[in-house]
Write a structure and sequence with these properties.
- An 8-stranded antiparallel beta barrel has the order 1-2-3-4-5-7-8-9.
- The chain has a single domain (2-223), classed as Porin (Beta Barrel).
- The longest helix is centred in the first third of the chain and has 18 residues, at 2-19.
- It contains 2 helices and 9 strands; from the N terminus they run αβββαββββββ.
- By secondary structure, the chain is mainly beta.
- It starts with a helix and ends in a 13-residue tail after the last strand.
């Protein structure tokens, strides 16, 4: 099942390129996680680097479809806790690779070209919702030698579906170039993003966050906005 969905996600960019109604871009930013080794909703001190790329297909001015690929690093530590967990002394580190298909809605986007064919810069906020697969490599680090035999936990899984919810803004600065910023939270079906479940809080799955800057180049017949509307 996972392989089938991943194959479809990988095939989408090539299909989009053939349609030539796309912008192709890079992402650079940060990642963080919310789970068993975080006492508060999120520990800002554990924010790590993330990067990736995307292919966005323009269905029309308001709706877009994007294939998104993100690679990031995540850590968590009981040392950040204010309760008894601090004495437990557990921490973890993990890489995460996520491939998603995201639908975007740009409520205020308009035609980027005037009736005379002149480019008109614009700023377009958007919201995105999608489905993907996240793969992670958790390593739990303990200070008490007696805790070493607890990990890895029996039945631990390193792959899960992810459900990104994204808020962003894109600025079309040139007819072929845009910059943006977005922040997204990812819900998962796994409690093993940090490698801890049974010996942590196994009643709630782990989440992770990704945010940062995007830069993209437009392709296609820009002067008619990909033939959405003839001027």
């Amino acid at each position: 099942m996972y392989r089938t969905i991943l194959s479809l996600l990988l095939a989408i960019p090539f299909q989009l390129w053939s349609q030539q109604k796309v912008d192709i871009g890079l992402f650079s930013g940060f990642s963080n996680y919310q789970g068993d080794l975080v006492e508060n909703p999120i520990a800002l001190s554990e924010t790590k680097f993330a990067y990736g790329g995307f292919f966005r297909y323009h269905l029309n001015e308001k709706f877009k479809c994007r294939a998104n690929f993100i690679y990031g690093h995540m850590t968590g530590d009981d040392a950040n806790a204010k309760s008894g967990k601090k004495e437990r002394g557990w921490s973890f580190k993990s890489n995460v690779l996520e491939a998603t298909l995201v639908g975007e809605y740009h409520p205020f986007e308009r035609n980027r070209f005037s009736s005379t064919g002149l480019f008109m810069p614009q700023v377009s906020p958007y919201v995105g919702l999608g489905l993907g697969i996240a793969s992670f490599t958790p390593e739990v680090i303990v200070t008490n030698p007696l805790d070493k035999d607890l990990f890895p936990e029996k039945g631990a899984k390193t792959t899960s579906f992810s459900f990104p919810l994204i808020l962003g803004v894109r600025a079309d600065l040139l007819d072929f170039f845009s910059l943006g910023f977005e922040l997204g939270v990812r819900a998962t079906f796994s409690d093993y993003l940090d490698g801890v479940s049974k010996y942590g809080n196994n009643t709630r799955n782990d989440w992770f966050w990704v945010g940062g800057i995007t830069a993209s180049l437009f392709f296609g017949d820009n002067h008619t906005d990909f033939n959405f509307r003839e001027n």
